[in-house]
Structures are given as C-alpha cells and as structure tokens.
Amino acid sequence: MTVAFYAPLKAPDHPVPSGDRTMARALIKALDHAGLAMTVASDLRIYDRAGDAALQTELIKQAQKEVARLLSAPAAGTWQCWLTYHNYYKAPDLIGPPVARALGIPYVQVESTRARKRLSGPWARFAEAAEAASDQAHTIFYVTARDAETLRRDAPAGQVLTHLRPFLDRAELPRQSDYSGAMLSVGMMRAGDKLGSYKLIADTLALLNPALEWQLDIAGSGPAEAEVTTLMAPFGARVRMLGALPAGELQHCYERACLLFWPGVNEAFGYAYLEAQAAGLPVVAQDRPGVRDVVAGMQPAVADGPHAMAARLTDMLTNRALVEDLGAQARAQIAQHHLLPAAAGTLRTAIEGMI
Questions:
Q1: pLDDT above 90: residue 348
Q2: What is the CATH number of the domain that holds 205?
Q3: Residue 218 near residue 240, CB atoms below 8 Å
Q4: Which of 91, 128, 268 is nearest to 188 (CA)?
Q5: Total count of domains within the chain
Q6: Is 174 a member of any domain?
Q7: Domain range holding 41?
C-alpha cells in the first residue's frame, strides 16, 4: 500500500525548522512505522501570509501545472491513498483533491482547520479552496479538541473524523531527567503569541520570593530575541539565554532540567511539552486549549494570571517529591498516548479501512 504525502505549508525537507516541519516528518515516520509505503508527492509550497490576491492567482497556476505533472508521472499509478498535512485558509491543498479524484483514490487530511469567516476578505479564494478540500476528504485526522469542534460542525455527511494525538517521532522514551538543573523554557522568539508567553514568564518570575533559589534556562531564538532579552534583563544571571539548540543539545537540557515552564499562549499543542514530559519533566503552563491536549494534570487558569503560575513554581521548587511524582505521571502519559506506536496504529487502522 503506497500513500502519497503532501504538506502545502512546509515540505518535510524545508530548510527552516518549525513545528509544521517537525509534524510533517513525524507523520512520515509514523506511516513507515505502520508498515505503509510512502512517497512525498510534491514539495510545491502554497502559502499566502498576507492575503495577496496576485500571489494567490500565481500559486493556483503553479498548482494546476503540478497536478498535470503528477498525473502524468508513473508513480501516480502506485498510489492508493493521498494524505495531506495541514490544509487551512493560508495554505490550502490545491493539489491533492484533483489528483485523488482523477486517480479514484481516497483523499485524507491531517490537522486541517475550518475557518468559514475567511470566505470573505483577502483570503477568500484560498479559504474556499481549503473548505472544498476539507469537504472532499474521506477522513480528517484531528490533533486537538479545538480543531475537532469546527471540523465536526462543518463536516459533510459521511465524513469520518479520527483523533490522532500529537506524538513524538520515536518509539521509546528518552533518558529520564535527574532534576539536577534549572527550570527550562523552550520556544521561538517572535512577535505575537510566542512573545506573549515570554511576557507571562517575566511577569511570573517577578512574583517569586527573592529568597527562593531558582535558575531559568531559555532555549530559542528568532526575530523578537531582543525583546525577550529585555524582558529577562531584570533577573540578571538567574536567566540564561541558550539560543537555538540542535535537537541533541536540547535533549540534554531536558535530561537535566527540573521542570518545563511555558505558558502556552495560543499553542496548537507545542512539541516542547511532549519532549519535556517524555524526559519526565512536570510542566507549568496555563489551562489553554492546546495545552490540555498534551499536558498531564491540571494547569492554572488563564484568569488567575502570573500569580497562579508563581505559586505553582514555588510548590515545585521547594518540593522535590512533587516534581518527581508529577514527572512520572507526565512520562507515563507520553508513553501511552504520544509515541510512534500509538500514532502508527491510529493511521494504519483508518487508512487500511478506507482502502
């Protein structure tokens, strides 16, 4: 069984790291783990950041040429299913639906979002295309409960919605942390939601008792790095800026840290939560939709603000047994629900059923 894979927003071999690229690569590994042959059908990027009508017209033309190329390629005759990752109004799948129709094979999506409010305005053409692609899908694998709400509301009759939990592209847990190091924050530094999380971190740290011993390491970089550095400046040497770290170095950080501190402002789900908990780190965040999908245990309410997170940090920094207990719960949750075997089983069952 051969699955044609496509990620319109960012191809798996795109040079710039991101959560989208990570998830695309993880899906490919999960398909392989499931015993499903896979080929990346296209690397054509379909993405309009700003709502540019001329760009949309040009990308539609490029997609039409790509459809013609794929249908004339010998490989197309081997495909038994088309799977697209992350179809939405800024990056609609303009290729998979016509190819799947022409070949008479099932069309499937992973982590798609519905946004019918975008059917008018600068992204209207792309929003229509994204909605049409979602309508054609036999099955949509949703990753978060928030996505499921609109997918279920707007699903055409007979469409199957299947929960594919966020997962790491590994079959076994990594080495467990020894909790000997600092608190750890991991996140890109850019304006918007990410910067919002960093502001909450700074506000929370300012509320900690000055007599409390703590250290925070921050792994990440980006265009808002200067703003983040300014936010953390009042804490002096207590906050260390590590910059962007390769995966191996970041894993070493998880293996030493005592907890992960990341509020999670508008996170889809956040790979750092999965990676940290896999190493046995408890998480201090806020009770937000994306956080709920992957973080073990209850988190402080958003309405309770930095004071609630400061209290939670204080509890953990003064109680090693609590850290170890919460870390064990987090690690167990990852092992059961968020590794390759679980994801592969979900994908294999659904795709084989379609075929």
A1: yes
A2: 3.40.50.2000
A3: yes
A4: 268
A5: 2
A6: no
A7: 2-169+339-354
- Together in a domain, 187 and 50: no
Residue count of the chain: 355
The secondary structure of residue 171, as a DSSP letter, is S
Query: Are both 6 and 155 inside the same structural domain?
Result: yes
Identify whether the C-beta of residue 180 lies closer than 8 Å to the C-beta of residue 255: no
Q: For residue range 26-64, what is the model confidence (pLDDT) as tens digits? A: 999 999 999 999 999 999 999 999 999 999 999 999 999
- 7 lies in the same domain as 41: yes
Q: What is the pLDDT of residue 174?
A: 97
Report the relative pairing of strands 139-142 and 160-163 from DSSP bridges: parallel
**Together in a domain, 215 and 343:** no
Structural contact between residues 116 and 131, judged by C-beta atoms closer than 8 angstroms: yes
Q: What are phi and psi of 39, to 5 degrees?
A: -135, 135
Type and span of the H or E element at 355: none
What's the rounded Cα separation, in Å, for the pair 335 and 147?
24
CA 254 to chain CA mean position, Å: 19
Give residue 35's Cα distance to chain centre.
24
Does residue 329 sit in the same domain as residue 350? no
CB atoms within 10 A of CB 328: 14
Return the pLDDT at 4: 98
102 shares its domain with 224: no
Residue 177 has pLDDT above 90, yes or no: yes
Q: Which helix (H) or strand (E) holds 217?
A: strand 216-219
Identify the CA nearest to 196 among candidates 308, 296, 286.
286
Identify the CA nearest to 234 among candidates 188, 199, 198, 202. Answer: 202
On whether both 289 and 206 belong to a single domain, the answer is: yes
Residues 191 and 319 in one domain: yes
How many of the other CB atoms lie within 10 Å of CB of 86?
24
Give the tens place of pLDDT for each residue, 64-80.
999 999 999 999 999 99
